[in-house]
Design a protein that fits this description.
Number of strands: 4
CATH class: Alpha Beta
Largest sheet: 4 strands, antiparallel
CATH architecture: 2-Layer Sandwich
Strand content: 15-25%
Structural class: alpha+beta
Shape: globular
Number of domains: 1
Strand order of the largest sheet: 2-3-1-4
Helix content: 25-40%
Number of helices: 4
Radius of gyration: 15 Å
Length: 122
């Protein structure tokens, strides 16, 4: 069972990646994405109160994961994928769960569609 609804309501020109990562890495991912002006933002979807209150290092040792949504403008999709690939190469344990394309996404764009795996050699 997926922890996300099949369609998250948001601005029609925004896409969304559903990601899983250790609780201890949420703040780092959110901070990095926020530092890139106009790249997008991260929203935590599931991290229980117990996870948030406990020590981040303890959560990391226990292997607790959280689910986040990374929202991005339609034109920034490749930049977000490139960043996620670089962060994965740097040791962040990011797992790609789903992608929600912007409502304005058209079939003509699918010819140039890229995925996180396209950036695994950065």
């Amino acid at each position: 069972m997926m922890p996300f609804p099949p369609r998250i309501s948001f601005a029609p020109d925004m896409g969304c990646f559903g990601l899983r990562l250790p609780v201890a890495q949420i703040v780092l991912l959110s901070w990095i994405v926020a530092e890139y002006d106009g790249l997008g933002f991260v929203k935590t979807e599931s991290a229980t109160l117990e996870m948030r209150v406990e020590n981040a290092a303890e959560n990391s040792r226990k292997g607790r994961d959280a689910y986040v949504s990374l929202f991005f403008p339609e034109k920034k999709r490749d930049d977000v994928l490139e960043l996620l690939g670089a962060l994965t190469n740097e040791g962040l344990e990011i797992s790609f769960i789903f992608e929600q394309l912007p409502s304005s996404y058209s079939a003509k764009d699918s010819a140039t569609e890229r995925t996180l795996e396209d950036f695994d050699t950065l």
